[in-house]
């Protein structure tokens, strides 16, 4: 029953929007950002100079974050995900998932627990996050979880994905070796997937994955690198594969807590620890994914209201739920 709160509709987003936009104390969230050329009518994502930073700085900020939260369970296992994305539970053997921005493994745990045959490749820009994820997976009582979990370090928005995931020749091929576990195919190769750290020894690649999950990850990517990040996701999916998306929505409670000096761009903020967060509207998500070639299957606000038991304060959370598909390869006449 606890998971039900994550995908219920407790209030209408348009009503929240009207309330926020009519509140003078929150006006700083709505103002155009200085020195930013963002087109608010077309929802084009453009960066402010203040938001620019190096990938190394981003990785270091998240390393420090996960070091501080190395004890205890800062992120709870996201068991609601398989109800939001039932495809992860219903797919059969030899299907693969690429979990991007795996953090401490809260998403990976839910997927591995919900599907006993799926293989999961998980990346993060933070070494500390990967260590936490491996520890949590090894400690979980999940059938063959360690044998089906392949963590590796990667900042997909800056360097792209490694060749063992999808080689350069596969990227350039319009067919991507559809005989190797293609989405929707009736058969698959029985060859075991190589472990990422030693996969360079193999003269082959995975030829893409069936699913990509972006769960509260894209919002942490600097705005000016988001477009490339989505293009990378598109490239590693097999034809017909799905990208499953969940992230912070516009006017979420956490957005309204940021002070004016924490704004580094339009709807873009940076915390005191150097980690960042962007808050999406439906149009900005749609533009990002569809301009990269994806087909929109589902896209909506998820509005959840809960009460803080300690102080009785009402908390209104806004997330965006999305499901996008890479088109199937077009076969000529």
TrEMBL record:
Q: Which InterPro entries match?
A: METTL2/6/8-like (IPR026113), SAM-dependent_MTases_sf (IPR029063)
Which Pfam families does the protein's record reference? Methyltransf_23
Q: What is its EC number?
A: 2.1.1.-
Instruction: State the UniProt keywords alphabetically.
Output: Methyltransferase, Transferase
One GO BP on record is: methylation
Which is one GO molecular function term here?
Answer: S-adenosylmethionine-dependent methyltransferase activity
Which superkingdom does the taxonomy of this entry point to? Eukaryota
DNA-binding as a keyword?
no
What family does this chain come from, according to its entry? Belongs to the methyltransferase superfamily. METL family.
Biological function: S-adenosyl-L-methionine-dependent methyltransferase.
Name of the molecule in the record? tRNA N(3)-methylcytidine methyltransferase
Q: Which gene encodes it?
A: LOC101252645
């Amino acid at each position: 029953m606890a998971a039900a709160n994550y995908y219920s509709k407790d209030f209408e987003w348009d009503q929240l929007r009207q309330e926020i936009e009519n509140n003078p104390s929150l006006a700083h969230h709505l103002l155009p950002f200085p020195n930013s050329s963002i087109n608010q009518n077309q929802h084009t994502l453009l960066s402010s100079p203040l938001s620019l930073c190096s990938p190394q700085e981003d990785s270091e900020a998240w390393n420090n974050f996960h070091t501080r939260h190395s004890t205890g369970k800062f992120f709870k296992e996201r068991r609601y995900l398989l109800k939001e994305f039932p495809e992860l539970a219903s797919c059969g053997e030899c299907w693969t998932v690429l979990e991007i921005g795996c953090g401490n493994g809260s998403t990976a745990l839910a997927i591995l627990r919900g599907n006993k045959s799926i293989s999961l490749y998980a990346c993060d820009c933070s070494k500390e996050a990967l260590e936490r994820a491996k520890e949590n997976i090894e400690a979980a009582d999940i059938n063959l979880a360690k044998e089906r979990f392949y963590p590796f370090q990667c900042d997909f928005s800056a360097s792209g994905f490694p060749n063992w995931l999808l080689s350069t020749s596969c990227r350039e091929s319009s067919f991507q070796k559809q005989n190797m576990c293609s989405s929707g195919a009736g058969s698959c190769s029985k060859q075991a997937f190589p472990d990422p750290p030693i996969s360079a020894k193999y003269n082959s690649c995975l030829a893409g994955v069936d699913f990509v999950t972006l769960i509260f990850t894209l919002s942490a990517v600097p705005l000016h690198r988001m477009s490339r990040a989505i293009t990378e996701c598109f490239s590693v999916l097999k034809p017909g594969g799905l990208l499953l998306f969940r992230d912070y929505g516009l006017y979420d409670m956490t957005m309204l807590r940021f002070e004016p000096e924490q704004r580094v761009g339009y709807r873009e903020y940076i915390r005191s620890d150097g980690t960042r967060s962007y808050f999406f509207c439906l149009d900005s998500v749609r533009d990002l994914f569809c301009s990269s070639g994806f087909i929109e299957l589902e896209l909506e606000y998820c509005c959840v209201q809960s009460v803080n038991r300690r102080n009785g304060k009402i908390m209104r959370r806004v997330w965006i739920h999305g499901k996008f598909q890479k088109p199937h390869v077009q076969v000529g006449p």
